[in-house]
Amino acid sequence: MPSPATDSPARTIAVGDVHGCATALAALVEMVYPQPADTLVMLGDTIDRGPDSRGVIEQLLALRKRCRLVCILGNHEQMLLDALEGLMPVQEWLRYGGAETLDSYGKGAGVNAVNDAHVAFIRTWRDVHETEDEFYCHGNYVERMPLNSQYWPDLRWQSLKWHTPGRHRSGKMAVVGHTANKQGRILNLGHLVCIDTYCHGGGWLTAFEPQTGRVWQTSEEGERRESMLPDPSRA
């Protein structure tokens, strides 16, 4: 695929829940072809469930040298940190995809096998990323609260199936992941776009550029496709 012109406008592109699908992520980055002025926003849940969480983190570390990389902390990264800090039983994390993450560091590896540099990197991730017209978080938000005062459990854990918020008080579009659409479809409510399209379960890994509505998608099996953001739908 030809690369964008080096003098093209800087882009902000969100990437949905990777969940250890390193092959799909590599293909998606090849399609998007980020340039140094571009911002790539990872919406969290990059690890667990899929086959190669270690490979995903290694790709993200490399991407920091290629473009501006913004990583948002998802509930699965939170579980990893909590398990390491003794705030959650390790066995509980393993039940929710942590076992696959540990296997990517070595079959049957224990929790201490997770690379220290990878853990330190994840500790730098943020809750929310905000631009002039959009904001990005992992799961959900409280529409009446300023973005810098949001409750982190809502941002990490709350599904859109439990609560679908209205437009945020800032008036900005929300771009989120976390709530997987098992049919592989993007949810567009106009004021909110969810791009968790269930890659680890046989769906798609989605990248979305809000300013143009452009969408790129890849699967762990090597499929690729491009489209535009679908028209707003109802929850």
Would you give an account of this structure?
The protein is α/β, with parallel strands linked by helices and 235 residues long. It is built from six helices and eleven strands. It has a six-stranded mixed β-sheet with strand order 3-2-1-9-10-11, with helices on one face. The chain has a five-stranded mixed β-sheet with strand order 4-5-6-8-7, with no helix packed on it. The chain starts with 11 loop residues before the first strand and ends in a 7-residue tail after the last strand.
Radius of gyration: 17 Å
Tertiary shape: globular
- So what's the oligomer here? single chain
| Tally of DSSP β-strands | 11
Q: What order do the strands of the largest sheet run in, or round the barrel if closed? A: 3-2-1-9-10-11
Task: State the helicity in percent bands.
Answer: 25-40%
Distance between the termini: 35 Å
- Biggest pleated sheet: 6 strands, mixed
